[in-house]
Amino acid sequence: MTQAQIPELSDITLALCASLILLVPLAAAGLALINAGLGRSRSAAHAMLGSLCVLAVTALTYFVCGWSWQGVAGGSAHSVTLAGKSWSWLGAEPFLFHGLSFGQPRAALIAWLQLFSVGIAALIPLGAGNDRWRLGASCASTAILAGLIYPMFAHWVWGGGWLAQLGVNQGWGFGCLDAGGAGVIQAVGGLSALAIAWILGPRHGKYSSDGMPSAIPGHNAVLVLLACFLTWLGWIGLNAGGSLLLLGLAPARVILVAINTTLSAAAAVLAVACITRVRFGRPDASLCANGWTGGLVSSSAACAFVSPAAAVFIGAIAGVLVTFCVEWLDARLRVDDPAGSISVHAVGGLWGLLSVAMFAQIPGDLVLNGVRAGYSNQWLAQLAGVVTLVGFVLPLTYALNLLLNRFSPQRVSSDGESHGLDLHELGAGAYPEFVLHREDFRPR
Questions:
Q1: Going by DSSP bridges, is the β-strand pair 371-372/85-91 parallel, antiparallel, or unpaired?
Q2: What is d(CA 382, CA 352) in angstroms, rounded to the nearest whole number?
Q3: Per-residue pLDDT tens for 284-328?
Q4: Rounded Cα distance, 322 and 272, in Å
Q5: CA nearest 248: which of 340, 164, 142, 343?
Q6: pLDDT per residue over 273-284, tens digit each?
Q7: Closest C-alpha among 1, 209, 241 to residue 106
């Protein structure tokens, strides 16, 4: 049994969805600026060009095969039968959007939204690879993410796949719910960032001989904080558009989604500001920016199903998690993540998935993933999504990128990192009037 197909859209809902999707690229612009601003100045142009190239690679790769593997609920899919029940594991749409009918606006809008969504997921690892990830290698890794990893997990949750079927086949609530992509977009991208950070290793000068981390601050806090405003608008479009198109919720819920998205981010940034004020004597700008984004990330899964009070709590917990995970990864595990991508997107996304089971209030007359009411055991479905991400998606992503690294090293040479990726790979710097870098004189 597959997930029931969601009814088509009215003209008013169609216009609303299109307007929301047009906001989503602002989230991509915000993440690109965060990645550039939290990296070194001598790699800033490389970070921005890398973001543009990654978005181009994701769009073309998803167009060629990603959409085929993801598909839509009720569409063609590869299935297996276990214990007398059919489980969908991969989409089976034609390549190159050939099976996409633009006379059916819901499917076409979903494809349009996903072109942006997979790009956002692919931007996340760039932050973890700041200052040392080759441009060509990042594009090759992105092709793997957009062509296989993302569409596969997106099918399982949004395309009528087996995680969505847990409600119908197993009685686990409504199946795994993820309105705006906390798991599908954010956690997939964040876990990819973890795999990349492991493979690349830390930047030169990040850790001393005794393993103590050195602070390498981002070069432009203004860009980073400006990006927070862009991500805010983009996330409203992402969360609201996903709720309408992928779950079939009523347009009136857009108001609740926008409120919850905003409140979650607000609670997260204030939580980080308070924690850093108490611990360090003053708020930390880069951590506050990470907290803001972490609040947006954590809101994505449950934004259409929780009360505003619950959204505040979800965001506050996300702010706490981001603050301490950044420190834990940096100091304890020696994972060098310049933009905090792992803490913000992987940890925040996983927390967002779990928050659905803890706080969601779903009306009894609402049908989700083919299930009406029967809202018991939802936590099992959400936990299944988390376990799948950590136990399958992360190892698969790491293995594929490690294999790629064997054929084409993903990290730049030592001299290339010292000179900066702008000069090494692009031949010109982002700020040619500034030629002296204090970090050049740190011992390696």
A1: unpaired
A2: 10
A3: 999 999 999 999 999 999 999 999 999 999 999 999 999 999 999
A4: 8
A5: 164
A6: 999 999 999 999
A7: 241
For residue 278, give both structure tokens: 């108490």
All domains in the chain, ordered by first residue: 23-71+98-441 (1.10.3430.10)
Containing H/E element for 85? strand 85-91
**Residues ≥6 apart with Cβ < 8 Å to 403:** none
- Tens-digit pLDDT profile for residues 199-214: 999 999 999 888 899 9
Q: What is the predicted pLDDT for the residue at 373? A: 64
Q: How far apart are CA 241 and CA 56, in angstroms?
A: 22
d(CA 294, CA 207): 26
- What pLDDT is recorded for position 374? 59
pLDDT digits 0-9 by tens, 395-442? 999 999 999 999 989 999 999 999 999 999 999 888 887 654 555 445
Average pLDDT, rounded, for the chain = 93
Cβ neighbours of 57 (radius 10 Å)? 22
Residues 359 and 260: their CA atoms lie apart, in Å, by 12
Contact 298/348 with Cβ under 8 angstroms? yes
Tokens of 212: 């103590």
pLDDT band at 197 (very low <50, low <70, confident <90, very high): very high
Residues 74/366/182/264 CA torsion (nearest 10 deg): 160
Instruction: Give the tokens for residue 422.
Output: 């702008």
Q: Are 368 and 175 in contact (CB under 8 A)?
A: yes
- 83 sits in the region (left: phi over 0; alpha: psi -120 to 50; else beta) called left
Rounded CA-CA distance 246/160 in Å is 10
User: Whole-angstrom Cα distance, residue 326 to residue 129?
Assistant: 15
Packing angle, helices 253-280 and 285-299, rounded to 10: 150
* pLDDT in the model for residue 362: 84
Asked whether the beta carbons of 318 and 351 are under 8 A apart, the reply is yes
Which among 270, 323, 314, 273 has a CA at the least distance from the CA of 296? 314
């099976």: which residue's tokens?
Answer: 99
Closest CA to 150 of 106, 200, 195, 186: 186
| This prediction's pTM | 0.95
